[in-house]
Amino acid sequence: MPDNRVPDSQFLILTAEQQRWATYAPRMEALMQANLTPAGAASWLADWSELSKEIAQVGAVLSLRADLNTADFEAQRALSAFQEELGPPLGRAEQALRQKLLALEGYQPAPDFALTYRRMRDESAFYREANLELSVVHAAQMQRHAEITGGQTVEFGDSELTVPEAESLLGSADRLRREQVWQAMARSRAEMKPALDGLLLELLTTRRQLALNADLKRPDGLDDYRAYRWQELDRVDYTPQDCLDFHAAILSEVVPLSAAIMDSKREQLGLESLRPWDYSRRTALDAQGRPPLTPFKSAAELEGIAERVFDALDPALGAQFGQMRGELLDLASRPNKMSHAYCSSLQASGVPFVVMNVVGTANDLKVLLHEMGHAFHFFASARAQPLIWNRWSPLEFIEVPSMAMEFLALGELQAAYLPADLERVRREQLESSILFLPWAAQMDAFQHWLYSETGPQVSIAELDAKWLELDRAFHPWLDWSDLNEAERASGWQYYHIFRAPFYYLEYAMCSLGALGIWRASQHDRAAALQRYKEALSLGNTVSVPELYKAAGLEFRFDRAYLAEMMDFVQKQ
């Protein structure tokens, strides 16, 4: 049985004092009482930023510990206690500090702080006292998703598999084995469904109230949580209608192309139709019936491969990955570990921390490249931007570094694969860049419907019916005849729906940016990589369109640009 314990890391160690508001309150009060002048504003902001980094890192570590072992009651309790104790007073203190800065006469923000200053003004106007306590409730509800799903297992034959282990078997060349695994996973998901149904309804109630407290209502008088998230995420460069237009463009430009790719595979494999077990977003089905590629056997071996890849791509990036080995990576899959992959940031230390659940698949290597793109982004922005608010980037750009790294590293994968397999890996990467877009549009379309067209009485049956309608439109190549479509209808029970609402279409936007970087790299690899790194270092100091421009791109996701990029991928 795999070890359930969270690996030792000095970065995950906290003292009791670090988890208490009393530790930080005097410094917050000192900032509030300081005699703030335009000349002294930069120093005052630096002090505020350093304090914020300390608090943010404690929250990140507690969240990591809770996700790394969802069965650890003490880790779950510590995270909840921290959120409950610090959330409301911290929110009030930050609002007071924002207002103090905004009221400072004669202050002109430095160019690299102007955007953050504007955001602080918007955040101050968006602030509602009633949402402080409610945000604590919301955070606790979202964390329950990890508690529910972290212990999920799949009984297959005589084995009890983690979800990532089971998913890896969906690439088997043996179709009967794929079907058996899929059926086992469906049974496991059915067991989870009642708890997740109930959790989503709780989240909907909380999210509606957040919007109502912020005075955001639709013309029919109901809450407008979509408008709430638009403000919360500072989406000023595009509208909800732009997103709906993007969904329609993907339906017309990408779904037929995706269906043609899958139909070609069906023909080559001699199948009458493609069943759900013949298609997995994480494990590509080989059209020639070859078994899935398995480039490594252990997390340690994967780390070694990745370091060689990054060293070959760019020695500076290789050095950063080497810095993470040992204490800033938790890659192996094990029971009770939250099954999603992500990159967290330890703000006070200025380093990223990557969590995954690897089981030996080619997709695991791809996901590590992706998450390391995030890690490189944080390294670059943290080193260039001392203020916490200027780190990372808006969501509309934050997936460009990660998705572009999947492509930029393609030319260095000889560290993982035999020469005969490299063309297969390249083709699967390109196919996935097409096949992913309908899924991203479906995820976003579901949320637009959920938060702008339904009310407090919406039922799980209605959610299931809407997802089924969307899945038939965006994934028409799948044959579900003679199957219980309850499994298909519950496909909305996905991580982002619970823990990152309205954060998904950004992946589709950024995938076009990633393809643009890769296209440029084919003409001048060194220049494209340099622009990539420079854009990362800008962090949050410039707008989304300016970040894209720095990377040599346009911030576009209209139908014409989508068609252009799909044509490029097909030619490749």
From TrEMBL:
Q: Which GO terms describe its molecular function?
A: metal ion binding; metalloendopeptidase activity
> How far does the signal peptide extend, from start to end residue?
none
Could you tell me which InterPro entries the record lists for this protein?
A: Pept_M3A_M3B (IPR045090), Pept_M3A_M3B_dom (IPR001567)
Q: Name one GO biological process term.
A: peptide metabolic process
Tree of life domain:
Bacteria
User: How is the cofactor bound here?
Assistant: Binds 1 zinc ion.
Named cofactor requirement(s):
Zn(2+)
Protein family = Belongs to the peptidase M3 family.
Q: What is this protein called?
A: Oligoendopeptidase F
- Organism of this sequence: Deinococcus psychrotolerans
For this protein's source organism, the top of the classification is: Bacteria, Thermotogati, Deinococcota, Deinococci, Deinococcales
